Amino acid sequence: MCSHQPSCPSSSDAHSAHVVAAHPEQGWSLLCTGAILFDDSGELLPDGRVIAPHRVPADRLAMAA
Asked: Which of 21, 28, 35, 43 could be bridged to 51 by S-S, CB 3.0 to 4.6 A?
């Protein structure tokens, strides 16, 4: 899908993929693997599968003093 070197990572290593197009005003980025990564940590994979956002429960967030 892209021509950078080294070549695109496998789908199991999608988080090391290069950003091809970033649209922060819309909350998403297109990766060189063809996946779309959303600002809420959700993903849409090239084969149509959806990965739900991986949010940390609020009770596990650190509170600023």
From this structure: 43
- CA geometry: angle 61, 56, 51, nearest 5 deg: 165
Three-state secondary structure call for residue 59: helix
Asked whether 51 and 41 are in contact (CB, 8 A), the reply is: no
Contact by Cβ (8 Å): 38, 23: no
| Per-residue pLDDT tens digits for 45-61 | 999 999 998 876 666 66
Give pTM, 2 decimals: 0.67
In a 10 Å sphere around its CB, with 0-12 CB exposed, 13-18 middle and 19+ buried, how is residue 5 labelled?
exposed
Q: What does the chain come to in residues?
A: 65
